[in-house]
Amino acid sequence: MILCCGEALIDMLAVPVPGGTEAYLPHPGGAALNTAVALGRLGCPAGLFTGLSEDFFGDQLRAHLRDSAVGFDTSTTSPAPTPLAFATLRGGEATYAFYDEGSALRRLDHFPKPIGLAEAFCFGGISLSHGRCAETFERMFTAVPPGALRIIDPNVRPALIRDESTFRSRLRRMQECADLVKLSLDDLNWLAPDTGPETFAAALLKKRPRLVLVTQGAEGATAYAKHGKICCPSRKLTRPVKDTIGAGDTFLAGFLAELHRMKALDPGKVAALPSSATRKALQFALRAASFSVTRAGADPPWRAELD
Hints:
Layout: E1 2-5, E2 9-17, E3 21-29, H1 31-41, E4 46-49, E5 51-53, H2 56-67, E6 70-71, E7 76-78, E8 84-90, E9 93-99, E10 120-124, H3 131-143, E11 149-153, H4 164-177, E12 180-184, H5 185-191, H6 197-205, E13 211-215, E14 221-225, E15 228-232, H7 247-261, H8 267-271, H9 275-292, H10 303-306
Parallel strand pairs: 1-4, 1-10, 2-8, 4-6, 5-7, 10-11, 11-12, 12-13
Antiparallel strand pairs: 2-3, 8-9, 13-14, 14-15
Helix pairs in contact: 1-7, 7-9
């Protein structure tokens, strides 16, 4: 199983209504939830560790997880509210306003023992931005046993960062100790604006990471390993783009689902992954992501839709 550790929230998506104004529709979201849901829909055993609320939005999130075959028995439950992210779309790209003070996520202060819990653990998103929940997730990351695969996707949201120095230090520690690091160009531009993807990846590969994935939007993605890099273009879309919400999460899930299918969900096997297998996983990940952008909100494809 792959356990996704991080936020589950409600994306409030702006939609036009008569009179020239907008209304907001609630969609399940959050980087960890999106990744877990995409994994479950792709047929990969998946779980979610997060803080879930007892409110009706929490009920919506639990139903969404059940429908996508994602376990959440390790998650905590709290009367605190569900975090909300109001998203405004311009050209398919989302701009967010987050409301999560005192939320079920921010109150998370303990975690289950990782030993024997999963083959792989995936961290990242706004859960690492600030507060005691960020410290909780980092402690859990550190507690993951050496034989399990540690994955991090920072999914940087600058608007939520309270203490930039602390956040940068946390990400640096976690990235340097991860086995697989996934980044977008936006992440890189924030983390190291004067450093190109290849240079950034090379520096990480001198530490623990075995593989660094960099997504480049419509241009595709590149995998960097100690033996070289593999570039893979995106598939040509046959349907119009609705929005890019959750596309990066779906990409990561697609790549991990292929690793699971190849029985390569451990640090040693990721390090020894042949170029042909890496390329195949990239292609599948891009295919899954390209499907998700044709639907509103984070709505990853099911395996049958990609076969």
